[in-house]
Design brief:
- This protein has about 160 residues and is an alpha/beta fold.
- It has helices at about 30-45, 65-75, 100-110, 130-135, 145-160, and strands at about 1-5, 45-50, 80-85, 115-120, 135.
- It has a 5-stranded parallel beta sheet with strand order 3-2-1-4-5.
- Helix 1 runs parallel beside helix 5 (about 145-160).
- The longest helix has 14 residues, at about 30-45.
- The radius of gyration is 14 Å and the shape is globular.
């Protein structure tokens, strides 16, 4: 099984994003979702939510918050869906220390991932060497660019590090 561990802010949106989520927070850009769709199309990877957006996300859409439903709808426009989420000790982790544990817990529970990538605009303090080998670090001014999407495809399909 191939996986994409997905952050939202700074990946599917950026500083200049005009769209708004129902809560009034920064929304999702279709162009960036299309870059995610390219990754999924070329790898057949499943999307696992690591973002703070996971607080309101549940596998059953009617149980989702309005923002999570909005996220689901924006992804569905490109034929995408989130199939799971990670669980961290500190979801709102302002000191960037806990997201890696959630990724490791998910991978450990799964047993053996064929390949995976972590799409995030931050490097968390608990992103160990293993996670960093699979990290595509976006930035808040660009989000998930075409180039970053191509790099993610290489990592997932080869299960190896690439020059990023």
């Amino acid at each position: 099984m191939k996986l994409i561990f997905l952050d939202v802010d700074g990946v599917l949106n950026r500083v200049q994003t005009k769209a708004q989520a129902p809560s009034g927070c920064t929304g999702i850009e279709t162009e960036l979702v299309k870059n995610l769709a390219k990754i999924v199309s070329e790898t057949k990877a499943l999307i696992i939510l690591t973002s703070d957006w996971k607080v309101g996300w549940e596998a059953v859409s009617v149980c989702c918050s309005e923002d999570a439903q909005y996220l689901n709808e924006m992804l569905a426009k490109e034929g995408l869906q989130i199939v799971g989420k990670t669980y961290d000790d500190h979801v709102y982790d302002y000191f960037l220390q806990d997201r890696g544990r959630g990724i490791h817990r998910y991978l450990d529970a799964l047993g053996n991932a064929e390949g995976y990538v972590v799409l995030d605009d931050h490097v968390f303090g608990d992103f160990d060497e293993e996670i960093r080998k699979h990290l595509i670090k976006t930035n808040c001014f660009e989000g998930l660019s075409v180039e970053k999407a191509e790099q993610a495809i290489v990592i997932i399909n080869n299960g190896a590090d690439t020059d990023r």
